[in-house]
Amino acid sequence: MAILTPDKNYSFSLVVPTTTPENVTVTHLMPDVNNIWQMTSSTRNGGNANQESVFEFSGLFNTKTRLNIATIKIEASSSNKISKKPDININDLFKRTNVDSNINVLIKQSEIEVDTNSNITSYTFDLLFSSNIEVPSGLEFILNYDEIEIPSTTLRIESINFGNSVIDIGGGTRDIKIVGKPKTPFELTLTDTNDNSVLQLTNSTKVIRTGATIRSLTGFINNNGLYSFKQKFHPVREGFTQNVITTAINGSMAASGATKIIFDSLLNVKVGDQIIMGEISSSSTITVSAINPDGDNVNECTLSSSVTANDNAVAEFVRSGTSFNLELTSTETMSDFIPTTNPTYVLYQYANPNIKLRASKTRTDYTISDGTNTSAAADTAFDKVYSGKANSFYTRTAGSKNVLSITYTLDGVSSKSFTLLKTPVFSSDSTLSSWSGVDLLGDSGNNVTISNVNAALSTSDDGHSNGICTITFNVFIEKYGTQDITLDLNLDNIVS
């Protein structure tokens, strides 16, 4: 550039506070012919936290000309980024003085460098100088910049969200959301109990733990840290049951009858699952009340009633409704909050459960009636069945279908008369309760309370003293769970 006739001297220093002087490069642009224009550099407070790099400029200038004195490049250290744009300020000695008003030293950005994640790693500036007055001695301009460590960009799956693990019997659509670091890869499968994929959105295939090749969904977390899609679940028909496992008794522990039995396998069997065997009457419902009851054998379970069967007798465990196995994997890291099980999650779609209130007997010399239905004398059970939506809670409201008043009228045949042995007692403690099955309430997810229990004898319609026994009680169904349950009142313990 053309320089007009110089008429004034200039001398000032550019001070850069930094403990990494190698990150600041200053290149003098003025020719040093005859040493008219010069730049020297030095270090102040070397080795201390307040270390500064000092660049001193001197020369001649024309008051009508703005000089481009130097190029300044500021680079961040490795694994760091420059957190804000550098700025330049006059030293405190000359702030808000005539010098501050008439001498102008500034930096003009000419270049910026960023990494692949848009972190700023360097700035390049032109150092510009102009003045309307003679430059006083001791004039300094301070160039400040900050750099910070770049946050880790390790790829990672943080979570997967799909709402409640229980799907309504009527089906529905769920939003499935995979959360994590942008660009993290993943693969997801969703299968039914027969290892068939039920995913609507697929773009690949995968070999799962059973050896089956099924359709899968692969993708990457987007720049907002999310991948989401909609998944539709179809309705389940009422009363539908799925096979959990077909296995066999392993040993002779049930040859004379037993509730605690070892099987070849109990893989995926849960408390509440029903056992079906040729040795069990079709009118009997026997369920699993505990898995590995002694903590020493995962293939041992406790059943709700005794079963008599030999070694190798075939047993089938079934469950109401259906379930889905969701498996999420990634070639990158996954949060500790995501289970490491295979499958990662299980979603359940239960059929609506039945709560059965049963009055059972072995005697044939009296009938049972509830005012609507009457049993024959030879009946061994009298059932009242109530159905509700799985995992639904109810409030105690008069007239509600979940608040019941039950009356059993026992009528002796011919001239038979009753003796009242005890008034029935309802308790959550199975050793105290007159109703069996209370120990399975929690496992099945049902919550039932029986109160105001009363039993009384009266004269029969044929005039026989104590020929009628009336048993009354109130029932409150607070919650329907996920499995059928039978609360059985054994009348043989109540009357004779």
Strand content: over 45%
Task: Pick out the low-confidence regions.
Answer: 1-5
- What does the largest sheet look like? 5 strands, mixed
Count of DSSP strands: 33
Number of H/I helices = 2
Whole-number average pLDDT?
A: 89
Q: Reading side by side through the largest sheet, how are the strands ordered?
A: 3-4-1-9-6
Shape: elongated
* Radius of gyration of CA atoms, rounded to a whole number: 42 Å
Helical percent range?
under 10%
Q: How would you sum up this structure, described in words?
A:
- Helices cover 2% and strands 49% of the residues.
- The protein contains 2 helices and 33 strands.
- It folds into 4 domains: 8-149, no CATH class; 156-238 and 323-349, Immunoglobulin-like (Sandwich), CATH 2.60.40; 244-318; 354-493, no CATH class.
